Amino acid sequence: MRVIGGSARGRALKTRKGNETRPTADRVKESLFNILAGLLPGAHFLDVFAGNGGIGIEALSRGAATCVFIEKNSHCVKIIKENLRLTGLEARGRVFQREVDISLVGLGKDEERFNIIFLDPPYHSPDLGTALCRIASGNLLVPKGLLVVEHHRQDKEWCTQDWVINREKKYGDTVLSFLVPAAAGVCVSPEDGGAKDEDSNLSGKL
């Protein structure tokens, strides 16, 4: 697994062995960051369920000013810190080893705000809905900010009333859903037929 763009392009990243973590595939990552390109310079990025930190590190490599990583697994936290060191990005990253729920509540109390929030929980995890509620109640996303969820295509119950699914891209069983606060529009339940790498534009291009 490598950084695929920006200042740390080509740097190999460590990852945990086994099936407990699921690093984002390179083609999904490339698509994600092509979409986010205009939002990244100077952005404050939040990587939730961070795993080995690959998404947050990619964001830093491509120009994000800072990234907060939330990951409860101690082994993964050590890997994130090592990957930040290997890429020379450790000065711009903070790593929280806590339960996601506790971390998000804490960030809200500290009045931290982010331009982009990325969530990649284990597939079918009930923690996703809770995290979305905490992000909304903590007001963690800046106005005109963007929240991205990577999830399994069969996960359909996690979108809460706080969020609008604005756009989706599908890659086999993996879906990237791009969300904005519900105050900006009407929440919808997208059904786009499930074509591979298909862009489902639901309420205007991001």
If you average the pLDDT, what whole number results?
87
Structural class: alpha/beta
Order of helices and strands: HEHEHEHEHEEEE
Shape: globular
CATH class: Alpha Beta
Strand % is 25-35%
Which stretches are low in confidence, meaning pLDDT under 50 for 5 or more residues running?
A: 186-205
Q: Say how many strands there are.
A: 8
Helix content: 25-40%
Give the biggest beta sheet: 8 strands, mixed
What's the CATH architecture?
A: 3-Layer(aba) Sandwich
Number of domains: 1
CATH level-4 homologous superfamily: Vaccinia Virus protein VP39
Which descriptors would you attach to this protein?
206 residues; alpha/beta; Rossmann fold; 26% helix; 26% strand; disordered C terminus
Describe this structure in words.
The chain is of the alpha/beta class and 206 residues long. It has a single domain, classed as Rossmann fold. 26% of the residues lie in helices and 26% in strands. The chain is built from five helices and eight strands. Strand 1 (44-48), helix 2 (54-61) and strand 2 (66-70) form a beta-alpha-beta unit. The longest helix is centred in the middle third of the chain and has 14 residues, at 74-87. The radius of gyration is 16 Å and the shape is globular.
